[in-house]
Amino acid sequence: MSLPPPRQVLEGERVLRVNWLPGSDRLRGRCHCGAETEAEDPVQMWEWLLAHPDHPAGGPGGPVLPADLPPPPAHVVTDPAVLRARERSRTPVPA
């Protein structure tokens, strides 16, 4: 069995597609029935696609966030006054 050339895509009525969204960690999945969703976890994306025709509403579930978030790392600036001062001091790049 040989693989198709890289630019060739499969055709058919039962093809499931998962595409990476450039510039992000997100995937877009499309079922052969036309349903689409986005997710970060490829396993959850495939479970959502393979659940056809009972795709869970809203796409695959995301990770469950803890009720109390941990404090940010020490190198992260969270003071809004510091962020505003940085924004004001930026010099626009000429076009």
- Shape descriptor reads elongated
Q: pLDDT under 50 segments (min length 5)?
A: none
Number of strands: 3
Structural class: alpha+beta
- Beta strand %: 5-15%
Number of helices: 2
Termini separation comes to: 52 Å
- For the CA atoms, what is the radius of gyration? 21 Å
Major sheet: size, sense and barrel closure?
3 strands, antiparallel
Average pLDDT rating: 81
Q: What percentage of residues falls in helices of 4 or more residues?
A: 10-25%
Order of helices and strands: EEEHH
**Oligomer designation:** single chain
- Provide the spatial order of strands within the biggest beta sheet: 1-2-3
3D architecture notes:
There is one protein chain. By secondary structure, this protein is an alpha+beta fold. The chain is built from 2 helices and 3 strands, in the order βββαα. Strands 1-2-3 form a 3-stranded antiparallel β-sheet, with helices on one face. Strand 2 (27-30) and strand 3 form a beta hairpin. It is elongated and about 60 Å long. The mean pLDDT is 81.
Give a concise summary.
By secondary structure, the protein is an alpha+beta fold. It has 2 helices and 3 strands. The protein has helices spanning 42-50, 80-89; strands spanning 17-20, 27-30, 36-39.
Key structural traits:
single chain, 95 residues, alpha+beta, 3-stranded antiparallel beta sheet, 3 strands, elongated
Write the layout of secondary structure elements.
Blueprint: E1 17-20, E2 27-30, E3 36-39, H1 42-50, H2 80-89
Antiparallel strand pairs: 1-2, 2-3
